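Chapter summary example.
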Amino acid sequence: MDKLRTAVVGAGKMGEIHARVYSELPQSNLVVIVDVDADKAKRLAKKHRCESAQNVTELIGKVDAVTISAPTTEHFSLAKPLIEAGIAVLIEKPLAADVNQARDIVALARKTGCLVAVGHSERCNPVVQAMKRLQIEPKFIEAARISPYPFRSTDIGVVLDIMIHDIDIILSLAASKVVKVDAVGIGVIDPNNEDICNARIVFENGCVANVTASRLALKTERKVRVFSRQAYLSVDYFKKTGVVIKAAPNIDLVEKIRQLKKSGTFALLTAGWQDLLHRETLDVDDREPLRLEQEAFLRAVADKSLRPEVIAEEGLAAMECAAMILESMKQHKWE
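The structure predicted for these 335 residues follows.
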């Protein structure tokens, strides 16, 4: 397969990572780094022995695929000329600064037939990939994503900054329409941008999700628990570990406990619940999520019958759910 000519827009922290991955992938030929700051673009371009530019219009005719890793407020204006030129684009999460811009991107992609992917790289986290392989139908999902203040992405609040990851994963797991959202949150560093948020999302199929995000914590934690008829999962994105308790091997457990209770010889207070349960360690393939994301994107660019990990419509769905959370949060002001 011929190498695809690639470019990265944005020479910040995430842009550096995307550029490194593109430079390492055998199907990619990284040709341009774009940033409004010419010095930053030149420094990163020099590192990867490629060209630099200050405007995305300079990419037209030079590249086949572009990753946009610039501030969220600039996503739409940067993506628009590229999509109109038919250049495949992967836009870092969130898809856009607001739902209207996200809808415009999706509409433009449909009109031009251009491939637009969204960088919800957590979908490529090994534990999420392992969950997907189990094909479970969740009834209750509990997610928590907390961390110390990152001193980046200060143009958006915690919902669009980090909760959006869990929103996307929850939507993909629930596979149903959102019918109700209740949320509460508060901005501490900047009153106009929430730093803490908790939301309860109810789906049409009866699934309920409780999701918490904070960027004011003392530690980093990224965990999710999923309850379904088939299994219970407890996974840690950060440690890339997980435990599965499947229903089938434990189907007789309750009856067994009842019989032991009737016997009168079963010491309930000394019984070990974990010892009674049949548990499995989640089979995790530990590969770099961003690399998997970029590989899927480039495969979809090269072969139109394939799709990237997260398509524009899914990025829009996450944005629409996030908008519902933000609106509910406004209705539950603390003051």
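To summarize the output: The two ends are 59 Å apart (CA to CA).
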